[in-house]
From TrEMBL:
This is DinB family protein. InterPro entries: DinB-like, DinB/YfiT-like. Residues 39-172 form the DinB-like domain. The keyword Nuclease does not apply. It comes from Lutimonas vermicola. Residues 1-19 form the signal peptide.
Length: 189
């Protein structure tokens, strides 16, 4: 009888320990929460940059070979949404670079349209990560824009979006300074 009680207690303890240490794939381990805050900050910082440039200077570009200020801001919004839709959400997108450039030119001519786009598209990317679990973030996709077409995790996809935003926002900040406008204070995260 004593042996049966010991086996029962050992079994109950084992089951209890497994229940205690079981990983819940829907529990965030840190990346999602911290990166959501990073995206919210990136949105606010990008909006500050967009607001600093007067509407009449949205068509300014320092050289014929580059985008205008407005096209840079529109590109940030459009590409963030495109990358999120294609790679993170895994949805089929008919992507035509020439049509994208045309839309950037149209949207980029309007400060108001650019600001609306930044708000809407950042909100969509933020909502996407907020709805994901750790398991979802470890899902993979093939990054077709790179010549070697690497397989990346969706977490890496979000990091790429952030890097891409940073790249183009920095260009827009340079345009602000060339035109003699104050740039917003740098925000690291």
């Amino acid at each position: 009888m004593k042996k049966s009680i010991n086996y029962f207690l050992l079994g109950a303890l084992t089951v209890g320990l497994f229940a205690f240490v079981k990983k819940d794939n829907n529990v965030d381990t840190g990346f999602k929460n911290s990166f959501t805050e990073t995206l919210k900050n990136a949105k606010a910082y990008t909006l500050e940059v967009a607001e600093k440039m007067p509407a009449e200077d949205y068509t300014f570009k320092p050289h014929d070979s580059v985008r205008t200020f407005g096209e840079q801001i529109a590109h940030i919004g459009m590409s963030s949404k495109l990358l999120n839709t294609m790679f993170i959400k895994g949805e089929q997108v008919d992507f035509d670079p020439a049509e994208g450039a045309k839309l950037e030119k149209i949207t980029g001519a309007s400060k108001e349209d650019c600001i609306k786009m930044i708000n809407a598209n950042f909100d969509e990317v933020i909502a996407t990560i907020e709805a994901m679990s750790d398991t979802d973030l470890q899902g993979t996709f093939v990054f077709g824009f790179a010549s070697n077409k690497p397989e990346l995790t969706k977490e890496q996809g979000f990091l790429f979006i952030r890097d891409h935003v940073t790249h183009h926002r920095a260009q827009a900040i340079t345009y602000l300074r060339i035109k003699g406008h104050d740039a917003p204070q740098y925000r690291p995260f």
